[in-house]
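1st attempt posting a full record on here, be nice pls
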Amino acid sequence: MNIGQASSHSGVSAKMIRYYESIGLMPEAGRTQAGYRVYSERDVHLLRFVRRARDLGFALEDIRMLLGLWQDDARPSAAVKEIALKHIDELTRKIAELQAMKRSLQHLAEACHGDDRPDCPILDDLGSPGSRGDEDRCH
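the predicted structure (as tokens):
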């Protein structure tokens, strides 16, 4: 199949397929005599794997390691679990950061009158030097 068909069957854009080939995440596709890329069902299966891993937020280097493990029939599942647990830790940290940002912004939004007056604690906070969005500063 051509790159458009591989894209359609895998859910990965043609641009990303070319990128994954360029960084060695997937092998370069075979070529026709005219130079067009040709993909197999196995390539599409690999692209689906990559897409699902990206949907779960894995970094490209983690996906590279997961692909290697996926293709190794003698793989230890402990190695796969270690990558997944590391990613869970990263997600937990990011969630905590997002929750802290939400709390800070929520506090600032509640302190804003939202009327015709020009004073706005949200803009004051954003414009203050060294602002970290600390909620205690607003009390």
